[in-house]
Write a structure and sequence with these properties.
SBNO_a/b_dom, 31 helices, six-stranded parallel beta sheet, single chain, SNO_AAA, alpha/beta, histone binding, repressor, Rossmann fold, differentiation
Length: 974
Amino acid sequence: TLKLFCFQVQRTQPPPEEEEEAEEEETEELGHVDTYAEYKPSKSTIGISHPDIVVETNTLSSVPPPDITYVLSLPETTIKGGLLSALQLEAIIYGCQQHEVILQNKQRAGFLIGDGAGVGKGRTVAGIILENYLKGRKKALWFSISNDLKFDAERDLKDIDAPHIPVLALNKIKYGDTATSEGVLFATYSALIGESQAGGQHRTRIKQILDWCKPDFDGVIIFDECHKAKNATSTKMGKAVLDLQNQLPRARVVYASATGASEPKNMIYMSRLGIWGEGTPFRTFDDFLHAIEKRGVGAMEIVAMDMKVSGMYIARQLSFSGVSFRIEEIGLDNDFKLVYNKAAKLWAEALQVFMRAADELGLVSRKSLWGQFWSSHQRFFKYLCIAAKVRCLVELAQKELEAGKCIVVGLQSTGESRTREVLDENDGHLDRFVSAAEGVFQSLVTKHFPSEKQRREKAPGNKRKRKWAETVAIIVIVSLLLSTARIEEMKQDLLHKISILGKELPLNTLDELIDKFGGPDKVSEMTGRRGRVVRRPDGSVRYESRAEQGLTIDHINLKEKDRFMSGEKLVAIISEAASSGISLQADKRVKNQRRRVHMTLELPWSADRAIQQFGRTHRSNQVTAPEYIFLISELAGERRFASIVAKRLESLGALTHGDRRATESRDLSKYNFENKYGTKALDKITKSIMGHIENKVPPPKGYPGGCAMFFRDMKLGMMDVGILCKDPRFGISTEKDCSITKFLNRILGLEVHKQNYLFQYFTDNFDYLIEKDKKEGKYDMGILDLAPGNDEIYEEKQEIFLTAGNPQDGQVVLYKISVDRGMPWEEAYSRSLKLSGSDEGFYLSLKLRGNHPCVLLAEQGRGKNFIVYKPNIGKQSQTESLDKLQQPAFVCLKQSSFYCAYTNTSILPRLNGKCKKIEEGQECLQGMRLRQYHMLCGALLRVWKRVADVVSDITSSSILQIIPAVTVDMCWKS
């Protein structure tokens, strides 16, 4: 079936004179479209089916890819033998086909593989390299995020029967040497900015790469996990990625990332897609970014569809059918709360001590000081949050192991830096487990407490007369002598209090986990750290390197992965360093085929990073799908963020859950605080807590001491964590540049009950603002369905317009369609025969609507609410209470055979027998069974700016709503 996409332009608020009539109109709501659809190649016919179910977003599935013109050179054994699945072969064909296109800026067009974790991007990329190798292009560049992934690249080439293509590691080649061999040059993104300190012919890696490629290089450049280069204009690495593409205009560029096109700002390095620049609707990337961000969620979907239609993009992901999710809520015991609250109070005291010391010294620039203070503050409380869940995790894991499963524990941080600091302090000896939290606090005070050195460094230069300079110098020396003792005393007092608190603080989480699971012999650790603290058989503790005899630290993670996959070890712990590229699923090809139980001890703040980590255990060719357990403490923020990830995963599995309308998971927009609603909510709560405004949202109920005490405590608490600060000129004010991220990090420094109540107040305001915008028609609802119920859509007419550009995809079509919202009498009667409740059935409203009585069918819903069906709008979006149906205005028609089937005429009250809108020369649509819409479809990106300008002129909303629709005629024709 062919699906259309439209922008629905409607007035968000009726004019004042229409308000009375608008109240009479039945509420109408667009439904949410199915989030995912099962994916099958539509135009490629070669290859065997993928071993697992793969899905595609519904919007992408509604548009076809271009016709195939490229002929593959891959050997028949690779295709028919199933070394590459039909899905992977399709991506290779479209990638190579796109590489035949030359953009208007004379550069070769690139291709974006947006396949999710587990679909097999590695093999697809290897297939593209092999295809070009067979066409005579013997050299290729492969960039990724870790040198360890070179072995994965070799494995992928071997898996598709191309072991003869060598993979050369750039980090093993000296700067002065030239890599003359053919094959794949494998490098990390950080290598692009590598520079030699020893001199020689090749002083930089990028020059070495360019010399290897030669200026006329037309081979493949793979940017794997390319989201790592997203800050292309603000980082040296990002600029190097752009520079390499500009230096090699004929190269065949492939971008590969599961999250690369999730946000428009992250696409800046994708210069070869030809969306912006010469000969496109957007002169620069900034023009493109501004246009897309201004128009909300639907805009990015239009971009994705346009890219797929043009043949430059493909994005599938593994279905989460069979995957189970559960959240384990972990209550904090009283002892832990006591320690946490002590720590929060000591940090609040430390803030005051740091400020007094800085004032005493008269520090002019304090940016570096506070940068160190707050980063340490964030790490300290992060370690505490994780430590609160260790005991429960081990208990749960033991039960799962006894049930015949194996465990994968996901966390982000390892605490290695503190361990190495203690090791250095003790001349390389360590006989105890280290508290990472205590170390962070101690290190901050020891290294960054305000000092005379900082003041001297910040003192003004000697630009005045010598006599004045000498006077200032004398004053400074006297001041130093007077303040040194006081500052040193403050510092030592703070260190003493930290050492006392340190005796109660939890130990380093990673070391403690490994110890509780039975030591390194039982646990496969896949992290970035080089050493760890372990317990020996005699009970003593020592520090040891993770490197093994004959293996470098670069190879140890791969060795540990093999031990887990072979079943030698049944517990694996992975950090962010091992969250990209590594495969830990219950693969049919490995010995350990136990079901994976993936337990998240520490969730990353980024949902995309979380999905990357979950993709380690849910991949193609697995015997069983994994089980995800989210461990959530009662500390503020953690629970809400876990729900984000859970909802995202559930939306991927919606195809098998029966609920195909995953309404709240679209782009995580409802639960993502880093948007305009989060900023407004933060502004509202800070102003109301400071007493500057009266907030319509009341504070949470149940706070000890009531509302007055809540506002007083929150004001003091937000000062303790630096969200509010005292300014000598303006009194108490919000810290400059206080973002949502900063707010969520800082409130962890409040006592447990305070941070939970403050976070609740914030989320209450956040939800209120969203609901307010929804009521006013200003909220971007994501992708909505034009006909959410049994509605039928009919095409009335179409106009075709041609746009500048490729004739194949340069067509825009304006459709006029009508939607039949009504419910026929036959369907209503049939439904009524199945009703059994005493209050269910037909009702007649004695209140006339125009000249017609209003008849409805009521069906029992939840509780005392009833689902209502009306002849002119079908199923009503809002339920009605039994009390309302039993009012004198309604009469229950028990055995009625009467049902009013309205024709397509307005049923609203009329003025002097006429509709107000018709009198004003407008088309009347309110109350109509048939609703008419105009839909703009096709290559919308090419006319984006003109459409946006027109819409801005006729509506107060900046949202362009994207809506899929299938007409009755189209379904019949197909």
